[in-house]
Amino acid sequence: QVQLVESGGGLVQPGESLRLSCAASGSIFSSYAMGWYRQAPGKQRETVAAITRGGTTTYADSVRGRFTISRDNAKNTVYLQMNNLKPEDTAVYYCSTAGSWGQGTQVTVSS
Length: 111
What we know:
- It is a single chain.
- The chain is an all-beta fold.
């Protein structure tokens, strides 16, 4: 089983940026697609972005053009660069792969 640890969340103002990181244990990291998801209070978890093992990326319509997912297979880490953050981006962000989930990191966007 893959162990995942997210970091990089925090409180920012609208228009600011954050970069989330997700560090994975194990040598199988490069073999799997990775995804970032988020869950806001009272809402269902939704897919934010995903990246295949070959580097192909997909995004939710709500974040396309503002968020960028990337991976560094040498570091067993996937990133989510979030620019021009909006209050509606407030949520707990999770990474996932191979059926495993991290503990989540809180992102709060508020003035």
